[in-house]
C-alpha cells in the first residue's frame, strides 16, 4: 500500500476531550473518527487492526469447537418478551419502531435470538454439544460512553452460546471457552486474568471476567500476582485437560470489586503476592443453565426419549474494546507498539528521497520482496521530510521500519528498526528480510 494513495489522516495533537492514552493515540494515528457519542467510523488503519483482532478471536473459537454464524443487529421485541428481558433491560436498550408499528431493538446481546434459532432446528441430544458464535455489532445506550472504543455505544462483540444436555457437559463447554479465552488474549499480546465475577442481569451461578491490568481500567480488581504471568494453556480441549486448566487458575484468588472478599483474599494469598489494581474487562463468560431454555422452550429429546431443557452458557469478547486495551498495554511516548499478531501492516518501507529514481527503485524492490515473502507493507512514498516520516511510523506502531535513502543505495544497505525495542541495524536487504522472518 502506497501511503501517498492511502487514507491516513494523522493528527499532530489529540483533541483535549480524549482522556486516556489509547483514545488519544487512536485519534492521532487516524484510526477512528467519532460520529456521535460512543459511535465511531473506523478509518482504514483502524479497520485493519479491528479485522486482525477479529480473525484471531475467530480462529481460537474455532479451535475450541465453536461454529460461526451471523445473526442480525435488529431483533423483535416479542422475542425478548418471551424471556422476560424486554422490560427488565432498561434504558441501555435502543428500542426502534418500524413503519408497521412493530417493536424492534438493536441487539445489546443475543441469548434470546440464538435460543430461538436453536429451538427451531435442534430436537435431539445427538446434536449436542453445540456452540454457536458470531462477531457482530452491538448497541448499548451507555450512560457515559467514554475512552473512545473502550466504552462505546455501538461496539463489536464476539458472542458465543453453548448448548448441552446437562450441567456436567455444560461445565465442560464453559471450561473450553475458559481455555480458548486464555489462548486468545495471549495471542493478542495481552496478560488477561480470569476473575470471579458477578453474573449481572444475565443471571446464573458461574461466571468469570477476563481482565487486562491497566491504570486506566474502569474495574477495581484483586488477584494473586502469580496469575498474571501464567502462560497460555494451548489447544488440548479434552474434558479432563480443560478442567485441570480451570482448576489450576481458579485455585488462586482473583475477583473484581463486586465479588471481592478481603478476608478470603488475605487468608488465601501471601502478602507479597497480593495485587490490587485496576483492570479492563475484555471478556466475560457465563454459565446460566436453563434460564433461557425454560421460558423459551428450547428442549431436546434425551437418550431416554424424554424432553429436557438444554443447559446454556454465553461467552463474550469485546473485539473493538480490545484495540484500546492493547494500546493501553503497549505504547511509548512516540506512539503505538502493535504486537505482530494484530499490526495493521507488518512492515513500513520509508523512502528518504522520493525525487531520486535509484532510491525509489530500491524501495519498490524491497516492497516487492517483502510482499513475495507474504508480508503486508505500507510504503511511505510521500514527499514529507524524513523526521515527519519517522514520527508517523513510530506513531502508527508498525512492528518493522525499513528505511532506504541515497547513502544506503550507494552502499547497498537498508536501515532496519524494530519498533518495540528501538533496535536498529544497517544491513543488506536480504539480511533485513531474514530478520523480519
Ligand atoms: P462493562 O462492565 O464494561 O459495562 P459488560 O459487563 O456490560 O461490560 P458484557 O455484557 O459482559 O459487558 O459483554 C461482553 C464484553 O463486551 C465485555 O466483556 C466487554 O469486553 C465488551 N463490552 C461491553 N460493553 C462495551 C462497550 N460499551 N463498549 C465496548 N465494549 C464493550
Ligand atoms: Mg455494561
Ligand atoms: Mg462488566
Ligand atoms: Mg461483563
From TrEMBL:
Residues 38-339 form the Aminoacyl-transfer RNA synthetases class-II family profile domain. Keywords: Aminoacyl-tRNA synthetase, ATP-binding, Cytoplasm, Ligase, Nucleotide-binding, Protein biosynthesis. Its EC number is 6.1.1.15. It is found in: Cytoplasm. InterPro entries: aa-tRNA-synt_IIb (IPR002314), aa-tRNA-synth_II (IPR006195), aa-tRNA-synth_II/BPL/LPL (IPR045864), Anticodon-bd (IPR004154), Anticodon-bd_dom_sf (IPR036621), Pro-tRNA-ligase_IIa (IPR002316), Pro-tRNA-synth_IIa_bac-type (IPR004500), Pro-tRNA_synthetase (IPR050062). It catalyses: tRNA(Pro) + L-proline + ATP = L-prolyl-tRNA(Pro) + AMP + diphosphate. The keyword Oxidoreductase does not apply. CDD domains: ProRS_anticodon_short, ProRS_core_prok. One of its GO terms (molecular function) is proline-tRNA ligase activity. Its main location: cytoplasm. NCBIfam families: PRK12325.1, proS_fam_II. Homodimer. Catalyzes the attachment of proline to tRNA(Pro) in a two-step reaction: proline is first activated by ATP to form Pro-AMP and then transferred to the acceptor end of tRNA(Pro). HAMAP family: Pro_tRNA_synth_type2. Belongs to the class-II aminoacyl-tRNA synthetase family. ProS type 2 subfamily. This is Proline--tRNA ligase.
Amino acid at each position: 500500500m502506497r501511503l501517498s494513495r492511502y487514507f491516513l489522516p494523522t493528527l499532530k495533537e489529540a483533541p483535549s476531550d480524549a482522556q486516556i492514552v489509547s483514545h488519544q493515540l487512536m485519534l492521532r494515528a487516524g484510526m477512528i473518527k467519532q460520529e456521535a457519542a460512543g459511535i465511531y467510523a473506523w478509518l482504514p488503519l483502524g479497520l485493519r487492526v479491528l479485522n486482525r483482532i477479529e480473525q484471531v478471536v475467530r480462529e481460537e473459537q474455532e479451535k475450541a469447537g465453536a461454529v460461526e454464524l451471523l445473526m442480525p443487529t435488529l431483533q423483535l421485541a416479542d422475542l425478548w418478551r418471551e424471556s422476560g428481558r424486554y422490560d427488565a433491560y432498561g434504558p441501555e436498550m435502543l428500542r426502534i419502531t418500524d413503519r408497521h408499528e412493530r417493536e424492534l431493538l438493536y441487539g445489546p446481546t443475543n441469548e434470546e435470538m440464538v435460543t430461538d434459532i436453536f429451538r427451531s432446528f435442534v430436537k435431539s441430544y445427538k446434536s449436542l454439544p453445540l456452540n454457536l458464535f458470531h462477531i457482530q455489532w452491538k448497541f448499548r445506550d451507555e450512560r457515559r460512553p467514554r475512552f473512545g472504543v473502550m466504552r462505546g455505544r455501538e461496539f463489536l462483540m464476539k458472542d458465543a452460546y453453548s448448548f448441552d444436555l446437562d450441567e456436567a457437559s455444560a461445565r465442560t463447554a464453559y471450561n473450553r471457552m475458559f481455555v480458548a479465552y486464555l489462548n486468545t488474549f495471549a495471542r493478542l499480546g495481552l496478560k488477561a486474568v480470569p476473575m470471579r465475577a458477578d453474573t449481572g442481569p444475565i443471571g446464573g451461578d458461574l461466571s468469570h471476567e477476563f481482565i487486562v491490568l491497566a491504570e486506566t481500567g474502569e474495574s477495581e480488581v484483586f488477584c494473586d500476582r502469580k496469575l498474571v504471568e501464567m502462560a497460555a494453556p494451548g489447544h488440548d480441549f479434552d474434558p479432563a485437560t480443560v478442567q485441570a486448566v480451570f482448576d489450576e487458575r481458579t485455585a488462586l484468588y482473583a475477583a473484581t470489586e463486586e465479588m471481592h472478599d478481603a478476608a478470603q483474599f488475605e487468608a488465601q494469598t501471601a502478602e507479597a503476592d497480593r495485587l490490587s489494581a485496576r483492570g479492563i474487562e475484555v471478556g466475560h463468560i457465563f454459565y446460566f443453565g436453563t434460564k433461557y431454555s425454560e421460558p423459551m422452550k428450547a428442549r431436546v429429546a434425551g437418550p431416554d426419549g424424554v424432553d429436557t431443557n438444554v443447559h446454556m452458557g454465553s461467552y463474550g469478547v469485546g473485539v473493538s474494546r480490545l484495540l484500546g486495551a492493547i494500546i493501553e498495554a503497549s505504547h511509548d511516548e512516540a506512539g503505538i507498539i502493535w504486537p505482530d499478531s494484530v499490526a495493521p501492516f507488518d512492515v513500513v518501507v520509508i523512502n528518504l528521497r522520493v525525487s531520486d529514481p535509484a532510491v525509489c527503485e530500491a524501495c519498490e524492490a524491497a516492497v516487492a520482496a517483502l510482499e513475495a515473502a507474504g508480508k503486508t507493507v505500507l510504503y511511505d512514498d510521500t514527499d514529507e521530510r524524513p523526521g515527519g516520516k519517522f514520527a508517523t511510523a513510530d506513531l502508527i506502531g508498525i512492528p518493522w521500519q525499513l528505511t532506504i535513502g541515497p547513502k544506503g543505495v550507494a552502499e547497498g544497505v537498508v536501515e532496519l528498526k524494530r519498533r518495540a525495542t528501538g533496535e536498529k541495524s544497517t544491513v543488506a536487504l536480504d539480511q533485513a528480510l531474514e530478520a523480519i522472518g
